[in-house]
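Here is one chain, start to finish.
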Amino acid sequence: MKKVIYSLYIDIPEGQFYMHDKPGVEKKNTKQAFKENYDKLKRSHQRYAKSIGVDYILYEYDNQYKEYLDFFTTNYPEINIYSVVNFYKIHLLYELAEKYDEILYLDFDVVPLTNENFFEVWDLNKGIAIYNNNIHVNARNQPLHKLNHTDRSPTAKFYNAQAMLIETGHDPKNDVINTGIIGAKKEHIQQLRYFEDFRGTLDLMTLLRTKLDGLYPPNIVQMFAYDNETVFSYKLQTTKTPHQWLDKQWHYFFDKVYYVPKVTKFCHCINKEFLLAWDRYEKNNL
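Its structure:
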């Protein structure tokens, strides 16, 4: 059985990071943090893949990505560059499924802090292994009409996916997911049919961004966006693709709490505070 770990690092040129999106939100600090930690991040991924005996591939800003970017912006001009990158990582999941039986995706800001074999710990026959982010949906339990979040927030993604399910006649129950770490078998990737009728999926999302029929207050509708995780959640439900939830050891959400527990296997540095992750890395003798 062929297995692979892959990651993605796209250093988007200045001025293009949020094309077609709100102005003044270029993530310069994030870009700088990735550049400063590029070598260590790449080596940590390579070391982990080698320790468990699987292939590792890092995709970057190369001709393959440029061709995909040209295709995407030509066919789906409503999508900003940041979102293109996130759809690209799902595209690569399908590309690799043509060659590999089991695949593990790690965002480039994920630091492996273990030598345990992900593919042995997680039985991917049970479904796509992914992180459930429901706990962050309207965490303060505010009234619906008072919610004010960015389109990247778990709250926005939850209501966006819910609206898509309702509009297409499905059960509105859904789960907010984070695609920073994905483990999957080829069969389940194919069952998900993520890009099947992709134009229709985007048209549905466009409709819901302008549909003020009273189902959701305007402040909720304003959160809706063309988000890869919203589509992933929607597809999980509509295709009935088996899935399982990663625990906090195998997807530690390193964001607001500035601490990396000793038991952490994969540290997802959402806050880009890599120094604490590297400190744990060294303490683990990796």
